[in-house]
User: Fold this.
Amino acid sequence: MKQTLQILTLLLTSFNLFGQTTYTGFIDKYPIELATEVDVFSDGDGHARGVYAYSNHNTPIRVNGELKQGTLTLFEKDEQGNNKATLTFENFDENSQQLDGIWKDLTSNKQYKIRLTKNFGLDLIQSVSLKDKYFRLVVDGPSRFFSRVTGVKILEKKTNKLIQHIDLDCQFLGFDNISVGDYNFDGIEDFSVFEGSYVGPNTSSRYFLFDPKTNEYFDSNFDGTSLEFDSNAKKIYEHNQCCAGRYRMHAEYEVINNEMVLVEQTCLEYDETTDDYKTVECE
Assistant:
């Protein structure tokens, strides 16, 4: 099992195929993990974005790039946003069982070979992590548009030790399902899982808070649409709209004993006679 966890897994999602493709292998002798989405256009070129992580650290590193004339190139950036390294795959073919490429340090020009073999994993690394933990999604199928997230695994970075497993039923977004933040404003980072998108811009997520007593995360039961967290004001803001934007609701909450407590709520409805919004009673 430990040896399996040290193998490199590359996840490729092509929107034109509505599916996930995974690969396992190595960059030289170094096991890493890479997840990327490739949006292929009608002319065969496309854009790509992704994440990769060295297995002995498991800290996700974002990459982005392009598919051009059959070559897939992913760029790793430094803290200033400058290109730091490239992962290049010539003659890229998502249907091939083998994928070969080159990793190159753009400062030293040092290069390493990449050798991958296609795999079909349903245990997907996420693009964000905590200081000493990282996340994997458990999904019920390889299709981004038809699969569901059935769980999340929280693992220790250096050892790959499973710390916690949480069952879920959420919409699958790929490697960006999870976000991190201090949702109860206690100075400790928590995490959330994107749950679903609804009419208009409305979205929902599941928010899990860290309990220092148990060293585990628990479901906060924070409930609301398109929640925003203001760490300076220590407030949660909710935004909801429907009917092509004709009706809007805005709410403000405080967090007391890990519960959302409503402070203020405002509802607006579009008035055609004034061509503006008017305040109405919230349902």
Observations:
- The CA atoms of residues 38 and 48 lie 4 Å apart.
